[in-house]
């Protein structure tokens, strides 16, 4: 996913800079180039360096905990999360106006939603996979969390 994100942003910048939006599926999905210094909905535009530092910390934490993964579900979740965070961090490191201050390239636009990119999709997939693992009671090491004891007949807890 990291490579898909990087390549898609290179193509988006090449094909969409100073050009009109491209309707892919009517007004439902439009390619619209945005250079975003902030987070979703362009919030926190004055905190680009903070977002960059948080992304670096997130990558270190992901790599630290990844050593303990014993479940395929967690492996996919962490892989998607790492790809997404690294994809947006790459923009902040290599794009203008400079290192740690670079703007993230976003280009997918849906109605009533912030413009986003492949890295954002990857982070959302990771969040969904993490929630699934948590609700299934699967720990990072692959073991199952103990569930509450089942109700015993005749105890009034049926």
Task: Summarize the structure in words.
The chain has 158 residues and is mainly alpha-helical. The protein has one domain. A three-stranded antiparallel sheet has the order 1-2-3. The longest helix has 23 residues.
List keywords for this structure.
single chain, three-stranded antiparallel sheet, globular, hydrolase, 4 helices, transmembrane, protease, about 160 residues, mainly alpha, Peptidase_A8
Q: How many structural domains does the protein architecture include?
A: 1
Largest sheet: 3 strands, antiparallel
Order of helices and strands: HEEHHEH
Strand content: 5-15%
What's the quick description here?
By secondary structure, the chain is mainly α. Helices cover 48% and strands 11% of the residues.
Compile the SSE list and pairings.
Blueprint: H1 2-16, E1 22-25, E2 29-36, H2 48-66, H3 72-94, E3 104-109, H4 118-136
Antiparallel strand pairs: 1-2, 2-3
């Amino acid at each position: 996913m990291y490579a898909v994100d990087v390549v898609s942003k290179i193509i988006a910048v090449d094909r969409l800079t100073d050009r009109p939006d491209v309707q892919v599926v009517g007004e439902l999905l439009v390619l619209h180039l945005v250079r975003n210094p902030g987070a979703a909905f362009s919030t926190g535009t004055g905190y680009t360096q903070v977002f960059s530092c948080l992304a670096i910390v997130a990558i270190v934490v992901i790599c630290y905990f990844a050593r303990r993964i014993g479940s395929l579900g967690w492996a996919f979740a962490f892989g998607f999360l790492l790809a997404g965070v690294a994809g947006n961090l790459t923009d902040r490191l290599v794009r203008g106006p400079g290192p740690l201050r670079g703007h993230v390239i976003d280009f997918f636009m849906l109605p009533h939603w912030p413009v986003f990119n492949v890295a954002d999709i990857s982070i959302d997939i990771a969040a969904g996979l993490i929630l699934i693992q948590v609700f299934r009671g699967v720990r990072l090491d692959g073991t199952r969390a103990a569930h509450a004891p089942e109700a015993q007949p005749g105890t009034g807890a049926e």
